[in-house]
Design a protein that fits this description.
The chain is an alpha+beta fold and 446 residues long. The protein is 28% helix and 17% strand. The strands form two sheets. A nine-stranded mixed sheet has the order 5-6-4-7-3-2-8-1-9.
């Protein structure tokens, strides 16, 4: 990953020039005869000086690989070693206007140089995109996954391709953000096409900038071009780009990940087209180190062949009433990206918290909540059903917002940074669908 540059190329060229230069000396004159006798002495001195310089160069310490495990403490999955403790203070930001495409800023201006904590080697050019692989499973462990462990994963039936990455929860501007350190040249193949094809985005990452999801940027206040603070560092938001993995909201190069203290090689992205992801997940857990987690990247609701669902498959009237009462009790509470209550919320955090008050366990992330029960027509929605939208221009198929249907054409939701939990009329722009939560199905979503 790191560029080990040859040292002293200018000096070597000078040496070659010195030895190639042979002056023509005429011996008829006394001064030239003296100069001729001096040439061997000068040559000896020159060789001695050059030999001394080369010896000094040879003794210079080689550039250290800052990613070596021997020189880095083992870091917990959810907190890099340099991370500051969570303060619990409300996190605010400036809402973004406009919807630029992946890897571009709102005005189409050139990407400015990143803000970096220390001088880094010039980034290697990002390789062009040659293939797009659909990711199916995401693996994360508490410590680096060895080559032997990765080889076992590769041998599991159904696995077609594997990409190694670094993963940790990093505090960015006070927000706890699930962050990946990746190789821009190879990881791009595992992202949605609008993201994968943006050379500008991946070169931005290679230069030391950070790419955040559209949800984190638009709803969380991390606007394009903004300099965000990380533990001991400052990073410029160079692009909005959804990576197609709901739990991941920020991506940096692996070089930047080293500077942030993110553990190395503790994550895998697996492409397994055609495989039964539930069975593959179970098979992977058998060969991975104990404590590893395996999540489905893009879970899909498998519809039941039955036309009529039994009443017991859904929430009871008392459960629906408890969830709605809990949600309406939070009117006016501020939106904070990543917040799960009880005083601040993001959109999916409000849903998870409200349903938990009714004793119903639903997943934390919006795209997982979208497969927590059967879809129903909007005109058949009942109080307590969930409504979903696709607002992300960097990945139009991604479900990025959720609200709770209140009834009478109104919904409860936590909109974005700078706003509060509110009861508003249902909007249908970019509407993705309505879902009736089934507690049994919701509890199984991974």
């Amino acid at each position: 990953m790191f560029d080990r540059r040859a040292r002293g190329p200018g000096l070597i060229r000078q040496i070659r020039q010195d030895f190639a230069y042979r002056p023509r000396i005429r011996y008829g004159h006394r001064s030239t005869r003296m100069a001729a006798r001096a040439v061997p002495v000068i040559a000896v001195l020159l060789v001695a000086v050059l030999a001394a310089d080369l010896m000094v160069l040879a003794q210079l310490p080689p550039e250290q690989d800052r990613g070596s495990r021997e020189n880095r403490e083992n870091v917990a999955l959810t907190r890099p070693a340099t991370e500051e403790p969570r303060t619990g203070e409300p996190r605010t930001g400036e809402p973004r206007t406009g919807e630029p495409g992946a890897g571009s800023d709102a005005a189409g201006e050139p990407v400015r140089p990143p803000v970096q904590a220390s001088a880094e080697p010039a980034p290697q050019p990002v390789a062009p995109l040659t293939v797009i692989r659909k990711p199916h499973l995401f693996v994360v462990a508490h410590r680096p996954l060895s080559s032997a462990a990765v080889a076992k994963v590769a041998r599991v039936a159904g696995v077609r391709a594997i990409e190694r990455a670094d993963a940790a929860e990093v505090v960015l501007d006070g927000k706890r953000v699930q962050t990946l350190g990746v190789d821009p040249s190879t990881f791009r193949a595992y992202t949605p096409r609008p993201t994968a094809t943006s050379d500008r985005l991946w070169n931005s990452l290679a230069s030391g900038e950070i790419a955040v999801s559209f949800v984190l940027g638009n709803d969380g206040g991390m606007t394009l071009g903004k300099t965000v603070t990380a533990p001991g560092h400052a990073l410029r938001v160079g692009a909005y780009a959804t990576m197609g993995m709901g739990a991941i909201d920020a991506v940096v190069s692996r070089t930047t990940a080293r500077a942030l203290g993110i553990p190395e090689d503790n994550a895998l992205v697996i492409s397994a087209p055609g495989a039964d992801t539930a069975r593959l997940r179970a098979a992977l857990l058998k060969v991975l180190p104990r404590g590893s987690q395996v999540a489905t990247v893009n879970p899909v609701f498998a519809p039941s062949p039955r036309k009529v669902w039994p009443v017991e498959a859904f929430m009871t009237a008392d459960q629906v009433r408890a969830a709605l009462t809990a949600a309406i009790g939070k009117l006016g509470r501020p939106y904070v990206w990543g917040a799960e209550g009880p005083d601040t919320f993001d959109c999916s955090g409000l849903v998870q918290w409200a349903y938990a008050q009714a004793g119903v366990r639903v997943p934390r992330v919006t795209h997982q909540q979208f497969v927590s029960g059967p879809q129903i027509p909007l005109d058949q929605a009942q109080p307590g059903d969930l409504l979903f939208w696709r607002h992300d221009p960097t990945n139009p198929g991604y479900v990025s917002h959720v609200a709770i249907y209140w009834g009478g054409g109104k919904m409860l939701h936590a909109p974005r940074t700078g706003d509060v939990v509110k009861l508003v009329p249902v909007t249908t722009k970019n509407f993705a669908g309505a879902v009736r939560i089934s507690p049994q199905i919701a509890a199984r979503v991974r």
